[in-house]
Request: fold
Amino acid sequence: NWGSWGSWQHCSQTCSVEGSARQPQQQRSRQCNNPTPSSNPLGRPCPGPSQESQSCTGLPYCPRDGNWGAWKQSQPCTVTCGVGQILQKRLCDNPPPKHGGKNCLGEDVRNQPCTIK
Reply:
């Protein structure tokens, strides 16, 4: 027969990823020792699993750092003929930071050369 189930182990992670189907798990085990099967004559092992797992509940969401989206032209070229500048902008929205994740590093605005013939 099986002995008693042991305590649940710590969760495999300290936070869960928002929107993920895979949640952190915790396990517990038990021993086939109540009594231990005989070795002579050979006894039958205990039926059923020696371990079980369950999803951890109540964990906070993991921080998600932000990442830059694509540069987009926000104003036309500064000249109608020759070489000028185009102002480009980008957003920290691919994805945006969430649950205490870090903001995007770097500039959100830049000037790029443009040539109009």
